[in-house]
Design brief:
93 residues; mainly alpha; 47% helix; globular
Amino acid sequence: MAWIRTIPLSEADDKLRRALEAQRELYPIEYATPVQPTDDGTAGIVASHSLIPDALYHAFATFGALMSPDLPLTRRQHEMITTMVSVTNRCQY
């Protein structure tokens, strides 16, 4: 597996902290606990974007917006779509 340098939360500047907090606020509460957390509790896939806070926010805020309860799909339909995308992309998470 490739190694990607990340910035731990303890070393994050204000821009990175704001990006992490802002994208996290868009996610359903069930996503609050990462499946594969880093040592500081951040989701590994999110931490892999920590060198570019703007990219981190936009990449993960997109998913958060797509999971919005204000959309006409049910939560079950959202989860079915995300599961199929993950299977198609051969994701482990």
